[in-house]
Amino acid sequence: MAESYVEEHEVTHHRALQHHFENMEQQREAGALGMWVFLVTEIMFFGGMFLAYTLYRRAYPQAFAAASNHLDIWLGATNTVILICSSFTMALTVYCTQVGKRQLQILFLILTMVFGATFLGIKAVEYHDKYRDNLIPGRLIPGRPFNPAVQQHGEPQDPHKLHLPEGASVRQVELFYWIYFAMTGMHAVHMIIGLGIMAFLLYFSIRGRYGPEYHNPIEVSGLYWHFVDIVWIFLFPLLYLLGRHMEGHG
Amino acid sequence: MSEHIVSLKIYFVIFLALLVGTILTAWVAFFDFSGPINAILALTIACIKATLVVLYFMHLRYSTRLTWIVLGSALFWLAILFALTFSDYSTRHWFSAL
A7: pLDDT confidence band, cut at 50, 70 and 90? Predict the structure, then answer.
């Protein structure tokens, strides 16, 4: 790595070292801390939505359980596994960079992107199902207001129809879908931004910019990616699972 | 303090634990426990999974104390957000007669 060192101000240091830092170690820690501070704002941002979810779930438990049961648990669970896999490959990307295995670093970065894109693809399928069943809340889609078909008593079971238990109204179910789309939508936006960051990292990884001595961008992007994974770890049980045990006797 | 490299073995164990947690949370959701136990179970598993990700995938366990304080402050303020809001919502019916 001798060529990555430059002679400047009569000191030898790594090319990636910014002048306001003493050394690579200080630069690395400062960068990671900066990302953690950003994640604090993200925790508060998503925290507000989790709070809204908790309050309305407490107010309309039957409607929220019914609406939650209408979501596809298998697609949700598959997406959870895919996102955990992507977090794992991201962690391996950081590891391979730290130990200087550049080919594997690029491979795991690509795998992380593939998992991320698969997650978004499955999410798109789910959103389309909601569109088909007129479950997009309010008038977000012109000409397709929130208007689900409600399962009537004694009718044959239809998975496209909403099973509305006693004491729950369609308006309350709509509220669940507002929260569902706001939270999963903001999560998906974070995933899309994450994929953009990965593309940037991939470009510079292929050019060989990151190695054992300098890998702040990979490490810091990994922190962001894992945070997005954590948000989903909470979203999956709260949105998809909360009413499953009430399915039989609604 | 120089950089700590988490071993591949730890990454694998955490990955497997996260998968097991996901299967577990989906499985127990179908059993009807009384009252709020379903929600408590789901949140407990989610918190454990999140803690594993933060400690090992995000390297918090090997990070500086300052990083711990930054994350701790976030959780503290999140707790304030929830505590104050719920102290309002859960006491409103006290004054419904007024």
Answer: low
Question: Does domain A26-245 fall into CATH 3.40.50.11810?
Answer: no
On whether the CB atoms of residues B41 and B32 are closer than 8 A, the answer is no
B2: pLDDT confidence band, cut at 50, 70 and 90?
low
Query: Nearest CA to CA, how far is A92 from chain B (Å)?
Result: 8
User: Which residues are CB-contacts of A177 (< 8 A; sequence separation ≥ 6)?
Assistant: A67, A130, A135, A136, A137, A146
Q: Where are the domains of chain B?
A: 1-58, 64-92
Inter-chain touch B74–A43, beta carbons under 8 Å: yes
User: B58, B66, B77: which to substitute to probe chain A, counting the most A Cβ within 10 Å?
Assistant: B58
Confidence of residue A114 (pLDDT cuts 50, 70, 90): very high
Residue A147 backbone phi and psi in degrees, to 5: -160, 70
> ipTM above 0.85?
yes
The answer to whether the Cβ–Cβ distance between B11 and A95 falls below 8 Å is yes
Q: What is the secondary structure of A106-160 as a DSSP string?
A: HHHHHHHHHHHHHHHHHHHHHHHHHHHTT-S-TTSSTT--S-PPBPPTTSPP-TT
pLDDT in tens, A121-170: 999 999 999 999 999 999 888 888 998 888 887 777 787 888 888 888 99
Shortest Cα–Cα distance, A247 to chain B (Å)? 8
Q: Output the furthest CA–CA distance in chain B (Å, rounded).
A: 63
Q: State the pLDDT at residue B35.
A: 75
> Which amino acid makes up residue A57?
R
Angstrom distance (rounded) from CA B8 to CA A91: 9
Are A123 and A190 within 8 A, CB to CB?
A: no
Q: Render pLDDT for A162-209 as a digit per residue (tens, 0 to 9).
A: 888 888 899 999 999 999 999 999 999 999 999 999 999 999 999 999
Residues within 8 A of B (CB atoms), A 172-231 only? 219, 222-223, 226-227, 229-230
CA distance B26 to chain A (A): 7
Domain boundaries, chain A: 26-245
